[in-house]
Amino acid sequence: MRHKNLVINFRDNGLFLLIVLLMLYPLWQPHQLVVLSDWSFHAARVEEILHNLTTGHWLTSIATRTFQGTGVGSFLFYPTPLLYLWAGLRLISSPLTAFFIWLGVLIWLGLMLSFYCCYHLTHRRRQALIFTLAYNLLPYRLMLGLNVFTLAEFVATLFLPLVFLGFYQLLNGRYADWPLLAIGMTLIGYTHLLTAILTVEIMIAGLIIYCLYARHFSRQQCWAFFKSILLCNCLTLPIIVPFLTDFIGQSISTVAQGIAFLLPFNDVVLNSIGNQLAPDVGLLLLLPIICFSRLNSHGHGYQLAVVIGVLLMLLATGIFPWPLLSHTSLAVVQMPYRYLSYAGLFLAVAFSKLGDNVLTTSLFKGRSALSLSLILVTFGGLYFGEMATTINRNRTGNHLTALAAPHHTGDALPEAFLLNNQNYHTQFAYRVKWGETDYFPQKSLTHAESIIRNQAYLAQHPVKLPKTAAANKVSYTVKVSQHSQLDLPIVRYRHTTLTVDGHKRSIQTSSRGTVQTSLTAGIHRISVSYQPSIWLIVSYFIAGTTWLGLVLSYAWHRKLPH
Q: Is 174 helix (H, G, I), strand (E, B) or coil?
């Protein structure tokens, strides 16, 4: 029996690997990439991690080579764990190949997780396959990952099936599955904090509705949820601690608040009907809404999934009164169409049942190869229909010339630009399109231009200083003719440290929110670095020990007789 299961698992892995290759090969084959939106932010973070890894430094806290070397904490406050795989692949392959291998590995992982989450509930492999393809080929998610490169949100939503499987199991009394919820939320937390917040919001709403409907919440459920929350907190401590030590109460800026890009409901519906690569759920996932009554014979669970999916679709559009909530905590979503990933998840659950019902009719009885072919051809055709413009854009370069070096330090990247393996590093001489000043101190925002252009001030006079970058450290050499104040273009955090001529100095904060110090006449060697708190070191130990405990526990339970 174990041998048979191994063969089946190998077949599933092979099928999903083939799907990933078919998805990504047309994009990789031209060896060039038209990029836009969030690409430059994530590519710059990977580049910084790569440089640090090559010098033997595993922990990256501040930007010293990318982001114009301003010392911004894009690594402290924006999760990086899954980027280390991308950076590691850069060590052994060309830049674009490393990116596509990284993306392929994560998409493959997402396919496998989706498949086993659905199979865990239904015990039907065909239904699990339909769900897997319906969710992972959701037009909105494909747009995020393969078109506009909003990579953190795309990767985070790969793990939503695992989270909601764990959540569903706890609500239905299957308390042994409590680690699933914790591990799913941890993987999201390692990738995109906003997705983690939205996921918690939806689960809180679900818990409230459940308690009102069921009118009870057992001690066992409370204990299971408590264990899941505790485990998740232990695993995500390295993400949480920097916010406790360097963010809260330190007047650090975040991404802009408020609601933007509010879509009309009819745009989402029309784009879905056209199966457009846009914020929509796609043509197939409208079918459970149309065929709602047909799901009645399978219990209320699938109809409930449709209702939740429709409510989340409405929440993603202008039908919901978002303008009235712009100054509330709900506005953290920024772009309400982010809820479409969740809508697609629930609609995919219902669609998988409809699809499985069709393929169990007498027409397909005993013809498993025919039903598998129909599934793959249907989803394959829809995928290449959605992606045709993107694939062609990538192949032709979209009439763009290859990105050239900037004229001045800190020039902004174009809206869209063409990258290849030869000019890949050119992008890092520019400021990133979105996120260059995220997590600057509030004081620094009004002086961002001078900081990004590496403008120092000596005795209040602008100067350009030669600098040397290392892992989490920037060093300057400065000649001073008389006692003066030096204001460096490095933003300051609570655990930023300063040494002058090898001696540690207390740091002053300039009016720009940057590192400032007093110097006597002479030539001085100044180094600014970030020193992780002891709590951050402890958090890595706790998280690592917890992961090790999980792996050993899983291995132990696998050995026990069933």
A: coil
pTM: 0.94
- Per DSSP, helices labelled H in 316-432 are 340-358, 368-396
Give CA torsion, residues 215, 220, 225, 229, to 10 deg.
150
Q: CA–CA separation, 61 vs 471, rounded Å? A: 9
Q: Specify burial of residue 52 (Cβ count, 10 A radius: 0-12, 13-18, 19+).
A: buried
| 561/217 Cα distance (integer angstroms) | 32
Phi first, then psi, for residue 72 (nearest 5°) are -65, 145
User: What is the DSSP code string of 104-139?
Assistant: HHHHHHHHHHHHHHHHHHH--HHHHHHHHHHHHT-H
Q: What is the pLDDT of residues 440-458, one digit of tens each?
A: 999 999 999 999 999 999 9
Quick one: CA torsion of 376, 144, 341, 172, rounded to 10 degrees? Answer: 80
The percent of residues above 90 in pLDDT, for the chain, comes to 82
Q: What is the pLDDT of residues 330-357, one digit of tens each?
A: 888 889 999 999 999 999 999 999 999 9
d(CA 27, CA 390): 8
Residues ≥6 apart with Cβ < 8 Å to 315: 336, 339, 343
Residue that has been written with the tokens 């050119």 in this structure:
426
Buried b or exposed e, range 68-93, using 16+ CB within 10 angstroms: bbbbbbbbbbbbbebbbebbbbbeee
pLDDT per position as a tens digit, 407-427 = 887 788 998 999 999 999 999
Q: Both tokens of residue 9?
A: 């698992």
Contact 258, 326 (CB under 8 A): yes
DSSP sequence for 212-267: HHH----HHHHHHHHHHHHHHHHHTHHHHHHIIIIITTTTB--SPPS---PBPHHH
Sheet-wide strand order for 514-519: 461-463, 456-458, 484-491, 514-519, 508-509
Residue 26 contacts residue 146 (beta carbons within 8 Å)? no
Distance CA 31, CA 312 (A): 38
Angle at 380 between CA 377 and CA 386, to 5 degrees: 140
Q: How far apart are the first and last CA of the chain?
A: 13
